[in-house]
Amino acid sequence: AQSVTQLDSHVSVSEGTPVLLRCNYSSSYSPSLFWYVQHPNKGLQLLLKYTSAATLVKGINGFEAEFKKSETSFHLTKPSAHMSDAAEYFCVVSDEDSGYALNFGKGTSLLVTP
Amino acid sequence: GAVVSQHPSWVICKSGTSVKIECRSLDFQATTMFWYRQFPKQSLMLMATSNEGSKATYEQGVEKDKFLINHASLTLSTLTVTSAHPEDSSFYICSASKDSNQPQHFGDGTRLSIL
What we know:
Chain A has strands at 2-6, 10-14, 19-21, 23-27, 32-38, 44-50, 56-58, 64-68, 73-78, 87-94, 103-104, 108-113. With 114 residues, chain A is an all-beta fold.
């Protein structure tokens, strides 16, 4: 069985300050982990993915995430927030046991203030 | 690359009508397509998985006679909401992948409002 928990439903940061969106997962198998971003009334855009290669994954728009097996975490970070980063972010886990279906976290709403 | 187009983006219709939503992979062949439903301020819930040329596999609790899925070609899947009612109003999102264990690429979603 697999699951993913996004620890914060809302995160608010000031423009130019670091972003940290937290995600913990559980998986019986070697998981693939993803972060997606969704802007209002839009589909999802893949930010980055981990698939058992390097544990520090760099994505688009300056985002990165580190896979920590010992902590079962896959937190998303960005050194400096931009106003355009305001959106909903989803942490997603997938593994062979689930037939590679995506299991979504509940999402974290990121607010960026001027 | 890996562009998925979903149409229409917004539809409003009367209760009792049927609505068809299209999902197309524009620059790749999608062996597998997925349909999700998203309620306001909630996460995505997988409704069904469809493989080209096969019947869709529905998640528990999703009525297959209500939500008809057709995946007749490697670039097109359709979701038809039959005899839609206000409780069917939601944001429907499709995704497509080259294979079940390949990354999914998402469409922009369809906002369905049933009056």
